[in-house]
């Protein structure tokens, strides 16, 4: 369940960052993946507000984050975020906990290098 919500929030919020309208996402749990994703979205320039399982994302222009984007322990999150950010003209560092740091990323990195995205 954490991964589904994390993927949904990352995809919707990254898309939302380029929009002018607000998006409300309800039914979110308070798990670590969701919290980390909300911090990432904020670092990329969106305003994120939480209230009892509902998240309001105010989109805007993407910005280069001034911090490392930490996905915690979300392998799916780091792979999706890497792909999403590779097509956007900004510089970001994506990292995670020791478990993430030990996982293979070749299946993400090789295609992005081939397509000259990184």
SSE order and pairing:
Blueprint: H1 2-16, E1 22-26, H2 32-43, E2 47-51, E3 54-58, E4 69-70, H3 75-86, E5 94-95, H4 98-101, H5 106-114
Parallel strand pairs: 4-5
Antiparallel strand pairs: 1-3, 2-3
Helix pairs in contact: 1-2, 1-3
- How far from one another are the termini? 31 Å
The CATH topology corresponds to UDP-n-acetylglucosamine1-carboxyvinyl-transferase, Chain
User: What's the story with the biggest beta sheet?
Assistant: 3 strands, antiparallel
Tell me the number of structural domains.
Answer: 1
Number of helical elements: 5
Uncertain runs with pLDDT below 50, 5 residues or more? none
Mean pLDDT: 80
- The percent range for strand residues is 15-25%
Give the assembly state of these chains: single chain
Q: CATH class, please?
A: Alpha Beta
The topology string of helices and strands comes to HEHEEEHEHH
Dominant shape:
globular
CATH homologous superfamily title:
Enolpyruvate transferase domain
Structural class: alpha+beta
Q: C-alpha Rg, in Å?
A: 14 Å
- The main sheet orders its strands as 1-3-2
CATH architecture identity: Alpha-beta prism
Helix content: 40-55%
């Amino acid at each position: 369940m954490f991964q589904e919500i994390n993927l949904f929030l990352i995809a919707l919020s990254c898309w939302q960052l380029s929009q002018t309208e607000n998006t409300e996402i309800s039914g979110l749990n308070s798990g670590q993946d969701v919290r980390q994703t909300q911090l990432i979205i904020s670092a990329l320039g969106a305003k994120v507000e939480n209230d009892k399982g509902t998240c309001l994302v105010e989109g805007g222009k993407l910005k280069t984050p001034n911090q490392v984007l930490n996905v915690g322990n979300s392998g799916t999150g780091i792979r999706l975020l890497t792909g999403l950010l590779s097509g956007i003209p900004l510089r970001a560092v994506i990292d995670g906990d020791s478990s993430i740091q030990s996982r293979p990323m070749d299946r993400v990195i090789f295609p992005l290098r081939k397509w000259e995205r990184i």
